[in-house]
Amino acid sequence: NAGVTQTPKFRILKIGQSMTLQCTQDMNHNYMYWYRQDPGMGLKLIYYSVGAGITDKGEVPNGYNVSRSTTEDFPLRLELAAPSQTSVYFCASSYRAGDYNEQFFGPGTRLTVL
Amino acid sequence: QKEVEQNSGPLSVPEGAIASLNCTYSDRGSQSFFWYRQYSGKSPELIMFIYSNGDKEDGRFTAQLNKASQYVSLLIRDSQPSDSATYLCAPGGQGNLIFGKGTKLSVKP
Lengths: 114, 109
Hints:
The complex is a heterodimer. Chain A is mainly β. Helices cover 0% and strands 49% of the residues of chain A. In chain A, the strands form two sheets. In chain A, strands 2, 4, 5, 6, 9, 10 and 11 form a seven-stranded mixed beta sheet that branches. Chain A has a four-stranded antiparallel beta sheet with strand order 1-3-8-7, with no helix packed on it. Chain B is an all-beta fold. Helix content of chain B is 0%, strand content 51%. Chain B is built from no helices and ten strands. In chain B, the strands form two sheets. Chain B has a five-stranded antiparallel beta sheet, with no helix packed on it. A five-stranded mixed beta sheet of chain B has the order 2-10-9-4-5, with no helix packed on it. Classes of the chains: A mainly beta, B mainly beta. The interface between A and B is medium-sized, with 23 and 23 residues.
């Protein structure tokens, strides 16, 4: 199993550009998550999904969009990049929700907006 | 809103010592806790899960949970330089994980 994979690993965007961060998991997990991590800070939840076709906002959703058309894929879209979106983005998945929702993380995408 | 507080450190301990990492949380409904380890430039990985009050041991790691005090800790015995990382605490429960900012641990040879 590859687990959770993310592409690209690094990206530099200009202000106002758009891009999609890709996330795929091969563990047949229903639950998937997108986090951002700023330097020296913890993880902030952007969006999550409890299954194909179902998504919901997390703590910091502004400036982002998601879709979940399959169990495996959960792409994150940035429409108009801003310097405040410079961060490391982690995708994660879990088999369960609630008290036992151990999350498995992808390797991350380091995004810089100039 | 759940809140999770961790001492950001850095916490520096000599090799072979016990490292003690602490986490407090605001949600009295939280029944479970996760400790994740994150090496610099890498993604978090789960190292401990605890559900019940008391201690849970796994090798050199011991998690302690006190629900009445809303406090969970992680002890690392015989600390090794390879334990140098940031440790993130996250309560489980309904909804999704809210992570603490993490405690940076440095183990000096």
